[in-house]
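tool_call: predict_structure(chain=1)
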Amino acid sequence: MNALSLEERTALRDAMQRLMRDACGETQVRAAMETQQGYDEDLWQQLSQMGITGLMIAEDFGGSGVGPMELEAVMEEAGAALLSAPILASSVIAAELIRSLGDDDFSQRLLPQLASGAMIATAVLGSDGGRWDPQDIGITARQVNGDWQLNGLGNYVLHGQNANVLIVIADVAGSLCAFEVDVKQPGLVIEALPTFDRTLRLAKIDFAAVSGHRINHTNDVSQAVRQALDLGLVGLAGEQSGGANKVLQDTVEYAKTRIQFGRQIGSFQAIKHMAAELLVETESAISAARDAAAALAQDRADKDQAISLAAFACADAYVRTTADSVQMHGGIAFTWEHPTHLYLRRARANAQLLGDSDHHRERYLQALGA
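tool_result:
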């Protein structure tokens, strides 16, 4: 892991901020979310050229090989800009899962393509529960005439309809195994799911005797999934805290310029109190996200606690900030033309994406007790 210095991390953040400002404004976001794939392919190439798609992939496999703190910094800027791209699905969770499984040949074959952005991968982990539970795997695998065949259902798969390859966790006679599945395999049906956040792409994937290549993992599959999801949660927390901070900044600016009853609405005591409370929420979320990234990067003993804390604190702060921001804007924020509701939609969807707040609170308490 090539952890950057504070100055280098700041430069990376600034570069990402400039790219988002130039290529991911509200107009571009609205245009991208109306497309089938849900993201701007030209922007995806720019992210690749900048090294963002290979941020968490080792240099040996064509990536930058940096750590969670750099990921969190980049995702803050992505969240502030409402970036809709398969970074979390492909460049973070799938890439980390591939690395953590420990199959060097498999990593050598796939990771360089993920790092360059030429290929998109996603992990098929959950069943109808919508979150990772090693006791509730929705897909089984068995050998038929020497070939592996997968059957079952994978639900809420992030960017499943955009992926070129699936990393599938399946039950093999009571044990967990990982498989590589090409999306063009016969018997595979990928169905796009409706989403409250129109910048988000989720899919339901049905496996009916689908051929898969068993990954020769040298590490425990459940542990590999947990490592990938922990990194994903750090990235998601960064996105949520960055989005919450941007919404608060925009709302404060609006309160300074909106005149009602002959006064700026920001001078009203009720608005002041709401803004002050949201400032505490957003600053706390940013601190939690950055601490979780540092804990994971440093492999601290309390990393499980820090990640779970960030998971529910950032999700709750984002939801509250966007909801209160709509109220502070008044009726205009309810209109389709105003951007505030786009952030509210993102906040509501992200709060369920890798497990809801109650799930992460429970995990936090378990880690605290341990």
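agent: The CA atoms of residues 32 and 40 lie 5 Å apart. Proceeding to next step.
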